[in-house]
Amino acid sequence: MTLKDNLKAVKTELNTEEQFLEKFIKSEKFIKKYKFYILGILVILLLYFAINFIVNFLEEKNIKESNEIYASLIQSPKDKEKLANLKEKNINLYTIFLVNEFDKEQDNAELLNELNALYKDKNLDNNLRNILALNLNQKSFFLKDFNKILEAYKLLEEDKIEEANILLSQIKTDSTLGQIAKNLKHYQGINQ
Fold first, then answer.
1. How far is it, in rounded angstroms, from Cα 130 to Cα 99?
2. Region at 20 (left for phi over 0; alpha for psi -120 to 50; beta for the rest)
3. According to the model, what pLDDT value does residue 191 have?
4. What are the start-end ranges of the E strands in the chain?
C-alpha cells in the first residue's frame, strides 16, 4: 500500500468517528433540551404499568375470593356472613346465588324483596338485570321476544287465540325465537 492509500483509509476512519461524535453531541443536546419531558414520559409510563399491574392483581384476587365464597355458599346457603361478604365483593355473583335460591323457594318474601332491590341497583350487569326481570315476571327489553312468547302461551291457555296470534306475529321470523312462535301458531290452529 502506498502512503496515499494509507492517508485515505485514515481520513475515512476519522470521518466516521467524526460523524459518530457529531451524532452523539446532537443527541446529548437533544436530551439536555428535553430531559424533563423525557423523564416525565418515563415516569408516566412506569406509573401506568405499575397501576395496571396492581389493578389486575386486585381484580384477580377479588374474583378468586368471590368464587370461594360462592362455592362455600353452595355447601351452606344459610350462612348470612358469607352472603354479606359475597354481596360486598361481587354483586353479580350474589344476584346469581339469590336467583338460584329463589328458584328453590318461590314463596320466600324476603328473598323476593332482595331481588327487587337488586333489580334497581345500578351496579348490576345489564344482562343479569334482564334475566332477573324475567324471574321477577317483569318486562325485559333484551328478552322482549321471549316475554312475548310467554304472554302468548298464557293467552293460548286461556283460549284467547286471536290475541295470541297478534303477539306471535310481532316476533320476527329471523329471530332466534321465530321458529317457536311459528310452532305455537301451528299447534294452536292459528293460520300462518
1. 12
2. alpha
3. 46
4. none
In terms of Cα–Cα distance, which of 44, 90, 45 is closest to 67?
90
Do 112 and 120 meet the contact criterion of CB atoms below 8 Å apart? Answer: no
> Residue 143 has what pLDDT?
67
Closest CA to 106 of 85, 129, 137: 137
How far apart CA 60 and CA 53 sit, in angstroms, is: 11
Query: What's the gap between Cα 34 and its chain centre?
Result: 41
Residue partners of 171: CB distance under 8 A and separation at least 6: 145, 148, 149, 177, 178, 181
The values of phi and psi at residue 123, to 5°, are -80, -10
SS3 185: helix
Rounded Cα distance, 78 and 100, in Å? 13
Which residue in the block uniquely carries the three cell numbers 457529531? 22
Q: What is the mean pLDDT of each run of 10 residues along the chain (192 residues)?
A: 71 76 84 90 96 96 90 86 88 86 79 83 80 73 73 84 84 76 70 46
CB atoms within 10 A of CB 68: 14
